[in-house]
Amino acid sequence: MTTARRDTYTPETLLSVAVQVFNERGYDGTSMEHLSKAAGISKSSIYHHVSGKEELLRRAVSRALEGLFGILEEEHARVGRPVERLEHVVRRMVEVLISELPYVTLLLRVRGNTETERWALERRRDFDHRVAELLKAAADDGDVRGDVEVRLATRLVFGMINSVVEWYRPDARGASGREVADAVVLLAFAGLRQN
Amino acid sequence: MTTARRDTYTPETLLSVAVQVFNERGYDGTSMEHLSKAAGISKSSIYHHVSGKEELLRRAVSRALEGLFGILEEEHARVGRPVERLEHVVRRMVEVLISELPYVTLLLRVRGNTETERWALERRRDFDHRVAELLKAAADDGDVRGDVEVRLATRLVFGMINSVVEWYRPDARGASGREVADAVVLLAFAGLRQN
DNA sequence: GTCTATATTACGATAGAC
DNA sequence: GTCTATCGTAATATAGAC
Predict the structure, then answer these.
(1) What positions of strand C are covered by protein, i.e. any atom < 7 Å from a CB?
(2) If DSSP states are collapsed to H, E and C, what string results for A37-91?
(3) Which of A1, B132, B138, B158 could disulfide-link to B82, CB 3.0 to 4.6 Å?
(4) What is the pLDDT along chain B (195 residues), one digit of tens a residue?
(5) Which residues 11-70 of B interface with strand D at a CB distance below 7 A?
(6) Which among A148, A167, A189 has CB closest to B186?
(7) Which DSSP state fits A165?
């Protein structure tokens, strides 16, 4: 690193600033004025780098989706006993969620007001279905409890995983990414109660 | 029911329309124009019933918070073994979340851009802490697993519970409120894996 | 209680100088 | 690549008639 702190923006560096503001104020609650203040450049300068607010959103959720779909292509997500593959996917989801925290956070809060948002929601549903199929296969093997509907169980485990974005902060004194992933896997598969 | 469908609004009836739109488009993504279209009256008529958008938000989150804090005052949440009280609170949270679905949904999505939103976030934190204390007491009794930090476990269980607002729809063919509550309690305490 | 009309401000985006 | 100035639209909210 021979260069000092960057004093001009690229779409990439601008994105990291924008995503942070989006997550603090909400996408709809963020104006170009807010972004320009946070980036330290004027509104019109932002338009030199990106076509507008929605392009920033599209870049952000794309990055989050790439991380998530990447999991499904990993060796351990494709081969082996479904319940083991499921456990790997759950663990890796927590890890990706943490490594790409601001981007995944934004993805998970998308509402569907614009074309970009609706596209993001659709891709998320695709991903959810892929994981649901895995849980279904594990249930067919008898490795996952049969007294809770597969669809319902999938949703609840997703809820537990995704909720990590609501409180995890990398700088905090709290648990590391690995520890959080361990806890999620443990609670999801073995539950809260002491046996 | 002798009266036909109400053709004039009170703050209460207007609230139920507004909350629905807020949940579809997001609070910041909803304009008074959107509300007036959904309610079938003009923008200015809305101001006859409420002082503005923020009052609608305040009424909605107040209702959600009343439902949640009400749980803590119930007999089974106050007396008995902590782990049993915890189980009761978890079950009742799911039930309240479903019976007051649109109001709790809105509460859980609040960001903190206005004074009302910051007040709602603070009250939510208070509630979370009350439940965390219960889990701590259950852990001290040895009734809850000791290999996952209490604070972390609380957050993950809350994540599972709260995620219900993201997909539960009362009209759907899917699980009833009771079935969902059963599933959440089962997964939270016993986990996904077949023993 | 509801309406139309309007005041006022905020927003996203563009034009054009440097 | 960044700026100031500005355009056109959409936002919250109010005034005042019926």
Answers:
(1) 1-5, 10-16
(2) HHHCCCHHHHHHHCCCHHHHHHHHHHHHHHHHHHHHCCHHHHCCCHHHHHHHHHH
(3) B138
(4) 334 445 789 989 999 999 999 999 999 999 999 999 999 999 999 999 999 999 999 999 999 999 999 999 999 999 999 999 999 999 999 999 999 999 999 999 999 999 999 999 999 999 999 999 999 999 999 999 999 999 999 999 999 999 999 999 998 677 889 999 999 999 999 998 876
(5) 30-33, 43-44, 47, 51-54
(6) A148
(7) G
